[in-house]
Amino acid sequence: xxxxxxxxxxxxxxxxxxxxxxxxxxxxxxxxxxxxxxxxxxxxxxxxxxxxxxxxxxxxxxxxxxxxxxxxxxxxxxxxxxxxxxxxxxxxxxxxxxxxxxxxxxxxxxxxxxxxxxxxxxxxxxxxxxxxxxxxxxxxxxxxxxxxxxxxxxxxxxxxxxxxxxxxxxxxxxxxxxxxxxxxxxxxxxxxxxxxxxxxxxxxxxxxxxxxxxxxxxxxxxxxxxxxxxxxxxxxxxxxxxxxxxxxxxxxxxxxxxxxxxxxxxxxxxxxxxxxxxxxxxxxxxxxxxxxxxxxxxxxxxxxxxxxxxxxxxxxxxxxxxxxxxxxxxxxxxxxxxxxxxxxxxxxxxx
Length: 351
Known about the structure:
- By secondary structure, the protein is of the alpha/beta class.
- The protein has helices spanning 34-45, 68-76, 91-101, 120-130, 167-171, 186-192, 202-211, 233-240, 242-254, 260-287, 292-305, 309-345; strands spanning 24-30, 54-60, 81-84, 106-109, 115-116, 136-144, 150-153, 162-163, 182-185, 216-227.
- Strands 1, 2, 3, 4, 5, 6, 7, 8, 9 and 10 form a ten-stranded mixed sheet that branches.
- Helix 1 runs parallel beside helix 2, helix 7 runs parallel beside helix 9 and helix 11 runs antiparallel to helix 12 (309-345).
- It is globular.
């Protein structure tokens, strides 16, 4: 476990068969998300069926933004376990630690800035009971902002709950899931290993990997909340440009899970869909975060990933927005210089 980014799926060791196990493990990986962690844990505790049924544990990747242990002990009063790495290991290694420390049959990897809605655990349990062959189950999700306000509701993948038909071919073409919505049987992680290779899109790669080996169950109910904020891994990946580099890698990785006769088609679909996503992201980076460098990295990267009409138009629009901004700033600077010169020539008289 030396490298921060494992090049192969890390092993998740089976538990001793004679040990008593809870049904659930809610594992909460955290790093510098104190601002949101209390709300995350409260969303679990309000649904807590008790320690015999559910393990709840915070796995802290050596956070620097506050007393995580103190918050856990104050809020959980002994109900929530706490583990801290002696040094920061990175998100992939923290996920691996979470999965290996999980004792339950079903593992919910709930990031420390996301939430679940009351009824989430009952709904997932119903899915697994109705679809016992499923290796994983997830619900629909809601996007929220830094303040916890709902931004948008993701449209349903199907109107009724149950096993998703042709799921491998659908998920291999685009991302439909946000992490707080997904629960995976521990036995599946034991067989397939943990997250690896990339820090952006590592969840998508995992969901494709699972779909290649197991049926996956789904509920259209919006019972999980994924939080957008400037400090999360997703935003940091956008600003650094790692997001596009990692997705290119992830698209290559998932090809081995797809039947050979479908790989070329699904690779093209995935590249087109992710390119459209990054093209849209480029305008958010430019307008909302005022990061023109990162915006052009994404717009150009999207075009190279899939040079179609959509990415071409997006790149041209972004260029127009940038040129307009330059023109506007030049005009404002000229107006300020003109005003300063006029003031110097015609100073206000004294009364």
